[in-house]
Amino acid sequence: MFSPGTKKSVARRTAPTHPPPAEGSPATPLTGNRKPVTDNNIIPERPDTGTPAPWAPRLSVRARIPTVKKSDKADDVDPIQPVYVGEVPQVVRDEQANMLQKHLSGDTGISGGMDKGTSLAWIICGSKLFVWSYLSPAASRKCTVLKLPSSILEDADINKTSSNAWLLCVLDWDHNTLGTNKILQQRTCVGVLLCNKKTRAFVYWPDIYSSLPSFTYIDQSDSITTTLNKQQRVSYSSLIASAIPDKKYFCIALACSSNGQLCKYVCSPTGIQCQETVTVSSQGSQLSSPKGYLRSMVWHAPYNSVKELKRRFLLLTDHEIQCFSVNLSNDSSLSKIWSHEIVGNDGDVGIQKGLAGQKKIWPLDMQMDSNRKVMTVLVATFCKDRATSSSYIEYSLLTMQYKAGIDVSSESSFHSHDKILEKRSPIEVIIPKARVEDEDFLFSMRLKVGGKPSGSSIVLSGDGTATVVRYWRNTSRLYKFDLPYDAGKVLDASVFPSDDGEDGAWAVLTEKAGVWAIPEKAVLLGGVEPPERSLSRKGSSKEESTNVLFAGNIAPRRASSEAWDSGDRQRAVFTGIAHRTAQDEESEALLAQFFHEFLQSGDVNGTLIKLQNSGAFERDGEINVFARVSKSIVDTLAKHWTTTRGAEILALSVVSTQLLDKQQKHKKFLQFLALSKCHEELSARQRKSLQIIMEHGEKLAAMIQLRELQSLIRQQTSANSQNDLSGSIWDLIQLVGEKARQNTVLLMDRDNAEVFYSKVSELEEVFHCLERKLTLIISEEMPLKFQLQRACELSSMCVTLLNTSMNYKDENHMWYPSPEGLTPWYCQTVVRSGMWTLASFMLHLLTEMDHLDTSSKLEFHSRLEVLVKVLLEAYSGAVRAKVEREEEHGGLLEEYWNRRDTLLDSLYQQVKSFNQGSSEVLEEQNKEIALKLSSNLLAIAKRHEGYRTLWNLCFDHNDLELLRSLMHDSMGPKGGFSNFVFKQMYNNKQFSKLMRLGEEFPEELAIFLKEHPDLLWLHEIFLHQSSLASDTLHVLALSDGDSSISEVVDPTSYEAKTELTLADRRRLLNLSKIAAVAGKNPDSDTKLKRIEADLRILKLQQEILKLVPENEETQELAQKLLPPAELIQLCLNIQNKQLALYAFDVFAWTSLSFLRCNTSLLEECWKNAANQDDWEAINQTTVAKGLTDEEILEVLKETALFQASRRCYGPGAETYEGGFEQVLPLRQESSEISSVEGILMQHRSFPDADKLMVTAIMFGSVATDATLEDGPSPME
């Protein structure tokens, strides 16, 4: 909430130099959108981020973790700093990194919390729940990962929720009695109940530590969606759970919803059932149907014993604390015991309503102390100061206790007393005047009690901050725990256990920086009195303008998503927002004095040295004293505007005069920097600061031009409109000014337009408002004519602002620092998003303009065209800056390309529509218009490499000369536009045109054809490179995603664009063979041999498939090229003698390396060949019939072993490379070397038919026709 004041007693030390944060450090995610405080007022949404403004350089959170050794002196440790406890588990960090890559905008929606009773911490990241003990040492820390059911994650609203979208209860089944040492013991059986607030979906894990954690869940999103619209959805605000006695893994859960209902669920390992729903009565409520209530529930007493059958709990409504009783052992209904009004007419029993200035009171959250005697309620009160007419919110803590004489343990004691509770102390006002917040933000606040120092509380706000509140000497003292950019948000807070049985220091769980402790001493010494500031991260203007006392007095900046888009990644940090030291204050005061003297006398002697000695050049970015003085010049608030309102301020020349005065003074400031040599120093050491100063000049010039544009539009429309304030720009000014006014207390009495024209440095807010509030400025209910007019006005405004800034930069480029790595303000995300929102809306209007006249269409097209031009320039600048900083830019580049193509395609379709005319005269006029528009569109597409638009312009007009000219002009490293043209022709099957056009662009064609070998070989033939064409055809014929069947080692692998049939591949191999012969290279014989081998394997595949039984798989294989190993395996899978022999043929036409790598497969082939014949039967036949040797040989000639041996080892055996004997010898020469004979020895028939089997293979290895007729018998 608040940063501690600078302690004078701490000696000033030189800050150590820290390394910059790791590249790609995760950025703080965005928070959810907020709604207006009142539905009737148009109050723009605040920036959707919880990140503190980057007002000082910050280190990454890793760099700021203290590394204090035991030998260090205690004085060297800052007593007001938080203490780092431990990191989140590695699996959590890995999942967060994955989520960050998937969500480039940074909106990862991480939720988390801490359970005090079990000392367990949990984080939900993506679709996983991580649970671990934050007290366990890092070495022994065990993190349980639970997968969330996919069905409850399908609701889009869940994925867009903020960091507190889930409620979780931990059920400790091992817990029997309370003990101080119990909390430090390792839990062995813990259940977890998880609930989503918006969808009311429940997930229950009975035991997360089991080997396979089971879960049950109930998804209620369907019923919610069908019965309620998005604005009326009922959400849960609080959840408590308790174990059911004598039923392990059974529990009761109670959830209170925003529509006043209290629901009771019974959870078991078999399912979750909603047993009862009670509507809580709200007599005496402030409103007829209070929004967002019921708010909070807590158990009245801790769970002391598993035998406890009945438990009480307290419920916070919009004006009461109610006590209910629930029976854990049966299905009896919830019973209300007592209620006590805390918001009413009697201020003695609570908060008195109806006081002067009070408008509304919100009880936000309630907690009980560890003794279960004191109830603390966080309250927000909306007030209005009658004197100044300014609105504010007062935050306070109400502490209640039981009245004397009430026996808390007896329910009957409550019935005898009218008043149950009494104030324990007067209301403790935390912040007397804070910024006005919307209800959604207020309801996101949570309260925790019990930590040290005694009596302190901690408030968690929805934007990710934690503030310790201590009431001391009738004054609140506030200590804010805040985070640097790359640490994410505060997810939850709890209390560490202590050795004396009391609660210990505060513990804080952060999104990405682990667990931190806030020591008691830090709260006592670092607490500050509350200024006018809210509980969120962004402070009020009172702090910004006072510049005394606190660390909060820092140069203001809108805390938006641009915080991490500025390129300034090295940010130093202490507790909360970074301190501005006394040295910074002195430097700024000294600079202001020197500048004032320069304005009076023009003297700058000694200025540079004095400023260097004061440390004015030690800070970079917005906290730099030169940037702060420049900001104060352009943001000066005029005192004499306060009496003007509405049309007066719009018409008064004082607006333009004030802006021109600021511009003149800013020019004087630049002259001062130049004459004093400070400009050179800034340009060399603080480039970011100098760019900010120059951007202030850009924004001033842009604001002056916006003022002129607004006056021009008013003059043009005043004759046709009775309302001088009509117009989209005026409405936008009102929204932006209202937002700034509501966010700053000191501006509450100023006019919206006055605030807008004064806050020049916050010009980005115009585009932020365009993104968020465009539907309020241009409503779909408006007539189309008004929508078009308003869209054109806003387009002119955006173009004016950006063109003026760019022109200012061009005219004053000598003043700017070197631009490498610096992102101009008009290239930042918020500006691009605002213009894209407007451009998208204008694209939608294009589809509804068919019935309008040509002049209206032409006017609208021209406005959209210039808007597209500046938007694409902004994207180009953003990409260039990221590339120069060597940051990851893939996501931004993809966004740039997609939006470029969308915009240019829409413009081109509009251009084409002008070519259509109902008459010859009209058609001729439209052609002239279309030609002019095409020329403008061509220039934009050419600058931003919109190749698709360039192609359409040339193709539709059949302009080959223009196409050639563009191809010559757009030659990129990968072929540029030429490569795109070749792709289009290839997709359109215009191959002949492609090849002829490629002759004019040989290098680009060569790059393109590397990915298209089906055309590459033709180009190589054209170049008389027959040998290369042969290689290309060979690889193309054998390409199928896998390695080629020929096992040719080739560095280039191609994938066929279309599925080739076996006949196509055979044709390509024959062409390769012809090209190899024509090439006449020294290695052409080797190539021809390999091609012939591949042709034989291809033929073998066709023959093998003929013998395979026909089915769906066979039909698929008929068109697929099978690798040799798969072909052989296919032969082995089917018992067929011919297939068994084909397997050896495949082996014969593969390489020797393939044989050696697949020896085991070859052995399987021999085993399969041996199984093709019944050797026992053959042996019995030869013995029984007494066959001669010649007759036996005739019998063996028909066996598969004989034929396989003849194929592999015979005199006429043909192979591609080497022989089978080099891999698998025929005879068993040694027991250490595998052989065919050794394989046969393992056959079941070998003991009986050994001679026959050996004779078959030996006879086959020598058999020829002559041998069979006249030669000696192998049996001899």
Annotation keywords:
alpha+beta, 42% helix, four-stranded antiparallel beta sheet, disordered N terminus, 1276 residues, disordered C terminus
Shape: globular
Question: Approximately how much helix is present in the residues?
Answer: 40-55%
What do the pLDDT scores average to?
78
Alpha-carbon Rg, integer = 41 Å
Derived from helix and strand composition plus strand pairing, the structural class reads: alpha+beta
Termini separation comes to 105 Å
β-sheet strand percentage: 15-25%
Number of strands: 31
Low-confidence stretches: 1-75, 176-184, 224-228, 539-579, 1041-1056, 1265-1276
Largest sheet: 5 strands, antiparallel
Number of helices: 43
Report on this structure:
The chain is built from 43 helices and 31 strands. The chain has 1276 residues and is α+β, with helices and mostly antiparallel strands. The strands form 8 sheets. Strands 20, 21, 22, 23 and 24 form a 5-stranded antiparallel β-sheet that branches. Helix 16 crosses helix 17 and helix 19 runs antiparallel to helix 20.
Helix and strand arrangement:
Layout: H1 61-64, E1 83-86, H2 90-102, E2 111-115, E3 120-125, E4 128-133, E5 144-147, H3 156-159, E6 166-172, E7 190-196, E8 202-205, E9 216-218, H4 221-227, E10 236-243, E11 251-257, E12 261-268, E13 271-279, E14 296-299, E15 310-316, E16 320-327, E17 335-341, E18 343-344, E19 351-352, E20 358-368, E21 374-384, E22 391-402, H5 412-415, E23 421-423, E24 428-434, H6 439-443, E25 446-449, E26 457-460, E27 466-472, E28 475-481, E29 490-497, E30 503-510, E31 515-518, H7 520-526, H8 541-546, H9 582-601, H10 607-613, H11 625-634, H12 647-651, H13 654-675, H14 678-685, H15 687-718, H16 728-743, H17 752-758, H18 764-777, H19 784-811, H20 829-846, H21 854-884, H22 890-913, H23 920-943, H24 947-956, H25 960-969, H26 976-987, H27 991-998, H28 1002-1009, H29 1013-1022, H30 1026-1037, H31 1062-1079, H32 1084-1107, H33 1112-1117, H34 1124-1133, H35 1137-1148, H36 1152-1157, H37 1159-1170, H38 1175-1185, H39 1189-1196, H40 1200-1209, H41 1236-1241, H42 1246-1262, H43 1265-1270
Parallel strand pairs: 18-19
Antiparallel strand pairs: 1-31, 2-3, 3-4, 4-5, 6-7, 7-8, 8-9, 10-11, 11-12, 12-13, 14-15, 15-16, 16-17, 20-21, 21-22, 22-23, 22-24, 25-26, 26-27, 27-28, 29-30, 30-31
Helix pairs in contact: 9-11, 11-15, 13-15, 15-19, 16-17, 16-18, 18-20, 19-20, 19-21, 20-21, 20-22, 21-22, 21-23, 22-23, 22-24, 23-24, 24-25, 26-27, 26-28, 29-30, 30-31, 31-32, 32-35, 34-35, 34-37, 35-37, 35-40, 38-42, 40-42
